[in-house]
Design goal:
Aminoglycoside 3'-phosphotransferase, Chain: A, domain 2; 2 domains; single chain; alpha+beta; 41% helix; Aminoglycoside phosphotransferase domain-containing protein; six-stranded mixed β-sheet; two-stranded antiparallel ribbon; 12 strands
Length: 256
Amino acid sequence: MAGVPHTDQEIPLEGGNVGGAVRVGDTVRRPTGPWTPAVHELLDFLATTDLPHVPRVLGVDDRGREVLTYLPGRVVPIGVEPLTDAQVRSAMRWLRRYHDVVAGFPRDSRRWRFVERALEPGEIVCHHDSAMYNLAFDGDDLAGVFDWDVAGPGRPVDDLAIFAWNAPLLFPDGDPALAAHGLTVMAEAYGDVGPGEILDHVTVRMTDASDRIEEGQRRGDPGMLRLGEIGEPAATRARVVTLLAHAPAIRALLPG
């Protein structure tokens, strides 16, 4: 699958801060790493299912970058425009479907970005960055989920936590009623999880994410070093402290 032609017409893509993705025609080009074979195996597996809104692997270009299909849609600008309730519901329904489908992915050991091991009981392969900056929408409907390069072993609530961190809990010292409402919409659309469970796991998940970013920076991972340029993981650790201080007010407004 190597040797996909390169053209000079490259358009930097909005989204996360890790991958350095560019659009070339109807394809996306992204840097590769030791984790890429596992991620491509995951995407190839998903291509055999009925799960929509996932990029397809086309190969590697002559610069050694992975080549994926381009997913159209609009990325809602984080910190500028909130997701609508309908967008949250659409994303959660897709995430639940993904978790159900990926449970069939082989559980043996693979080299992921942060770990090399098999899946443990209760684990699936999580996207691990299912945040609004990695989602594209067509109106209120989810249209694409991209940036799969940090996928790896985890529990389903890990993906819920990263979504919550970047949507209803983006401003943890903001209106607790808005945060509680967003968590409730998430939980009801996903199913079989309570909003309090999501809230409780966010600090665990983001502390773990901070540790992984630091570890990656020590290893010289280019994507993690780019996060360092925007103040990570110090900024995340500071937000976790803020969330811990405001979590009781949010929890008091959750149903049940």
